[in-house]
Design brief:
Largest sheet of chain B: 2 strands, antiparallel
Number of helices of chain A: 22
Helix content of chain A: 40-55%
Radius of gyration of chain A: 35 Å
Strand order of the largest sheet of chain B: 1-2
Shape of chain B: globular
Strand order of the largest sheet of chain A: 7-8-9-4-10-11-13-12
Largest interface: A-B, 77 and 81 residues
Largest sheet of chain A: 8 strands, mixed
Shape of chain A: elongated
Structural class of chain A: alpha/beta
Strand content of chain A: 5-15%
Number of strands of chain A: 13
Helix content of chain B: over 70%
Number of helices of chain B: 12
Strand content of chain B: under 5%
Distance between the termini of chain B: 12 Å
Number of strands of chain B: 2
Oligomer: heterodimer
Structural class of chain B: mainly alpha
Chain lengths: ~625, ~325
């Protein structure tokens, strides 16, 4: 891992933020240097020179209705606006943070009372409250400043309170308390430094607003009073000349715009650096279909023998994050026989789910990409299929059952709706008809009172019920293959058995093949006809269930079987496998299990892996398989 | 649902009461003689004394508040001495104009913001996303009152497509088409910032939702991609965006102050600005109260809509 770059270089890497910083710095330097520039007096009127256009008679930006030099007024006005905006931000930050710190640290009734007060202030439209305050204090720049500062206090108070609340429950605060520090000391030396980034973020995101709002009050004539000018009052005066001399109002507007935009850009940049979780757009959304890289495939006939429904050949799926390549699936081949149940077994991270998702292009892209292989089904290679072709198969001829039915069912639609939709996505039938079919399906998966339950939302059902809905959805059309990805792992042990039995019974009735993904050999022995064992993205052993369970050849399979507790043998020693699977972005040459294998020899560490048929279709990928058992 | 709305209405009372306390307190803090402030500096001493008595200003503050609140509940917000008419009449008349403007703006910013956010999320990092992100940045950085002036220059002065100010044409007009042509520019100007905020949030929540397991389920069922995005993902994203649209009502109602001034819209914002400069305190008080109360109602409406969309909130 490279070391994390410093905050400043992170910030400058963000092009927009860097542009914003450049613009802001330019404006700030101009404002700071205004007194040294050879400018005309911003308030000196000269009616002879009124309403000169830009570049006319030595006035670079022209003059206003009293003949005052607009460039000079603009720069002096910018100084005023920045100063007022910054002061308002500092005042709001000071009082807001103080309220937030106290409320969050003290808690209880003080917190409740302070926060109710803050909520009340927030019940007003922001600008309206500022107006009411100016109405009381009277128009004037200073009063506008107070008003804007006051209405921004709630934002700081709320943000800071939230952070303080979680901080004051932490150990280091308790430790400080025990060491005899006073509350004030703890707040200032322990809590405040941790809250500071949030204060800075809130300041950088609100200062632009405050400049805009004070300019707004001045625009309305409630802020800066003549002859003093800030950007808002210049705009307000210019507005009356809009039809005759638009430059008088356009020029200060451009300045406000540049100022606020550069502050917003810098603010977004600061937020991204200090609080990367909030960064907009780091989350990328998966596309409708996994990306498939251009592959070289054998030109074998795509037709399958009549007893095979699915033929997966050398499938490889990678996830590319930054410069890292995670080879989740590294050349997997298997065939699914008609009406059989094939178990795909392995630890988490072994690539079994990604294998299953890759078959119909459901592995998330980005960052996923299928780099090699063929998935033969019904006379075509599914990796060549376009989205519409895949869509016709998904949920229709090949259906999925996922692990956690609470997160995999849509929370805002009734289960009846969701099943009906599965049907109507493939068959143009009226909704009513699809709905009655949903009710039948719910009845078929033995949900009591199916008619009523069809109207239930997922959160209103128990875990077992929800997974029955998942099964009903998978059987809604006439699937020839059902892919079940740990369908009972999220369920209670007592419910698991029932759901499994139901799934198996129904798929046998429907004559569908089942690809059953699990990490549980106990389940495999009850359900599966054949088993494929996966490790670090490869199938390392495959055979009939009895071949694998009674005569495991790969050292990994043996260890995995040894891990299964056996009913009635409580004293049996449960072996755990030493070490961890290799990270799939750092796969070793040779056998991936070799570093954890007590049978490993020199030759295991260098390449040359092939699935070896040791008889009767029992294949194993271990160069020592024969000699070790011999 | 009726039960929920009823509960929310009950819960609204303390908030409304709090609003009256704040408005009353702010106005009671006005330095100097309030009667003088109300009547202006040309008032005769007799008038000042009479008004002080009428307003009950010789009584303790709490009693004053209770009397004021009592009057408020019977619809008596006092009388504007500048306009010489009851505050309530003036406020309601002006507020109806503001409601048309703010309502049109809210509608516009909801439609545009949601649309832009969804397009942005679906084409993440594509040119449409970049363009929308850039426009949003410009929109939320631009002073709305300045944008209003620019739009007047372009569409009213130069192109002469739309009127520059007012709510109806002075001669003739007065029909819906006339109102619409006057409404277009100010409603758009007022909607710009809120559109930006809604678009940003919609983009973020769409991206979040599209990563959820139930979206993968929808795709695994064979649901058409258009439906995955506009039905499954959009509905889930909408649930988080709706409360923020409620909050935008505050931005729009407040921003109306500027926009009504720029476009000479006869609404409550323009009334407030004028009332502040003429020190017509009772009018300010009444105006602020009505707008704040309507903001509370807008938020209530947003909550109710969210509850209608999200069955999980019922339990």
């Amino acid at each position: 891992m490279s070391t994390r770059p410093g905050n400043l270089s992170l910030f400058l890497n963000n092009k927009l933020a860097a542009v914003g910083l450049g613009a802001l710095a330019t404006v700030l330097v101009l404002a700071l240097l205004t007194p040294v520039f050879p400018l005309m007096d911003p308030d000196a009127t000269a009616l002879v020179n009124r309403l000169k256009l830009p570049l006319e008679d030595g006035h670079i930006l022209g003059t206003d209705h009293l003949g005052r030099d607009l460039l000079s007024r603009l720069l002096w006005g910018t100084r005023v606006s920045i100063l007022v905006g910054l002061s308002a931000t500092l005042i709001a930050a000071l009082f807001g943070s103080a309220i937030g710190l106290v409320a969050g640290y003290v808690g209880g009734r003080t917190d409740h009372l302070l926060m109710r007060g803050i909520d009340m202030l927030m019940a007003f439209p922001y600008i309206l409250l500022a107006l009411a305050i100016v109405a009381v204090l009277g128009p004037g720049l200073l009063n506008a400043l107070y008003a804007i500062a006051l209405v921004n206090i709630p934002f700081f108070a709320r943000n800071i309170r939230g952070i303080t609340l979680s901080l004051s429950r932490r150990d280091f605060v308790d430790a400080a308390r025990l060491s005899g520090k006073s509350h004030t000391q703890i707040l200032l030396t322990e809590v405040l430094p941790n809250v500071l980034p949030i204060i800075v973020i809130t300041m950088s995101t609100t200062v632009g607003w405050m400049i805009l709002e004070t300019a707004g009050l001045s625009f309305l004539g409630l802020g800066a009073q003549p002859p003093q000018a800030d950007l808002g009052s210049m705009l307000g005066e210019g507005r009356k000349l809009l039809f005759t001399s638009p430059h008088v109002s356009i020029i200060p507007g451009i300045m406000i715009f540049i100022l606020v935009m550069s502050i917003n850009l810098v603010g977004d940049g600061v937020r991204d650096v200090l609080d990367p979780r909030l960064k907009s757009g780091v989350l990328s959304r998966p596309a409708a279909k996994t990306k498939v890289a251009p592959r070289t495939t054998e030109s074998t006939p795509l037709e399958l023998p009549s007893n095979i429904v699915l033929d997966v050949r050398d499938l490889s799926t990678e996830f590319r994050l930054g410069n890292e390549v995670y080879k989740s699936v590294g050349g997997v081949s298997f065939q699914l026989i008609k009406k059989e149940c094939l178990g795909l077994v392995g630890e988490s991270g072994s690539g079994k789910s990604v294998t299953a998702l890759s078959l119909l292009g459901l592995a998330p892209t980005p960052p996923g990409i299928i780099t090699a292989g063929q998935v033969l089904y019904d006379g075509s290679d599914l990796l060549d299929a376009d989205l519409e072709e895949l869509r016709h198969l998904r949920g229709n001829r090949i259906s999925y059952i996922f692990q956690d039915p609470l997160s995999t069912l849509h929370p805002l639609f009734t289960v009846g709706d969701q099943i009906a939709e599965t049907i109507r996505s493939h068959y143009a039938i009226p909704f009513q008809q699809a709905w009655s079919r949903s009710v039948e399906l719910l009845d078929m998966v033995r949900i009591p009172n199916a008619e009523g339950r069809a109207n239930a939302y997922p959160h209103e059902l128990s875990g077992g019920m929800r997974q029955r809905v998942g099964i009903a959805m998978a059987l809604a059309n006439d699937a020839s293959i059902i892919i079940a990805d740990e369908p009972t792992t999220a369920l209670d042990v007592t419910v698991q058995a029932e759901v499994l039995k139901l799934l198996d019974q129904l798929r046998v009735e429907k004559q569908a093949s089942l690809l059953f993904i699990t990490h549980d050999f106990g389940v495999v022995s009850e359900l599966c006809d054949r088993v494929a064992v996966m490790y670090a993205g490869r199938i390392i052993e495959m055979g009939t269930t009895s071949q694998i369970l009674d005569n495991p050849q790969h050292p990994y399979t043996r260890k995995l079987i040894a891990c299964v507790p056996v009913l009635g043998q409580p004293n049996r020693r449960l072996d755990t496998i030493e070490g961890l699977p290799p990270p799939v972005n750092r796969l070793p040459d040779g056998c991936a299990f070799a570093p954890r294998c007590d049978q490993a020899i020199e030759a295991c560490l260098s390449g040359g892996l092939v699935l070896d048929d040791i008889g009767d279709g029992h294949v194993v990928e271990c160069i020592r398989a024969r000699e070790v058992t011999a | 649902m009726a039960n929920y709305i009823f509960k929310r209405l009950i819960a609204m009372f303390p908030v409304m009461l709090g609003l009256t306390v704040i408005v009353f307190t702010i106005m009671a803090m006005i330095p100097g003689d309030p009667a003088l402030a109300i009547l202006g500096s040309y008032a005769t001493p007799e008038n000042v004394e009479k008004l002080n008595r009428d307003l009950g200003l010789d009584k303790p503050l709490v009693e004053q508040y209770l009397i004021w609140l009592g009057n408020l509940l019977t619809g008596d917000l006092g009388r504007s001495y500048n306009l010489n008419r009851p505050v309530l009449d003036e406020v309601l008349e002006r507020f109806s104009a503001t409601l048309i403007l703010a309502g049109a703006s809210l509608l516009l910013c909801s439609i545009l913001g949601l649309l832009a956010g969804v397009i942005s999320a679906v084409h993440q990092f594509g040119w449409a996303d970049r363009a929308i992100t850039f426009l949003v940045l410009i929109g939320i950085s631009m002073p709305s009152f300045w944008l209003g002036l620019l739009l007047i220059l372009v569409f009213a002065v130069n192109l002469k497509w739309l009127p520059a100010s007012g709510m109806y044409a002075i001669y003739g007009g007065g029909d819906l088409a006339d109102l619409f042509s006057h409404l277009l520019l100010p409603a758009f100007t007022l909607a710009v910032v809120a559109t930006g905020v809604i678009a940003r949030l919609t983009r973020a929540s769409m991206l979040e939702v599209l990563r959820q397991d139930y979206i993968r389920t929808a795709r695994a069922k064979g649901v058409a991609e258009r439906s995955v995005i506009y039905k499954h993902a959009f509905k889930a994203a909408l649930v988080t965006v709706i409360p923020v649209i409620g909050i935008q009502a505050g931005l729009v109602l407040g921003g109306a102050v500027y926009i009504e001034t720029v476009f000479q819209w006869p609404g409550i914002g323009r009334m407030l600005v004028k009332a502040i400069s003429t020190r017509d305190i009772l009018l300010v008080q009444g105006g602020v109260l009505v707008v704040a109360a309507s903001y509370v109602l807008f938020n209530l409406l947003a909550d109710v809509v969210q509850h209608l969309l999200d069955p999980r909130l019922k339990s």
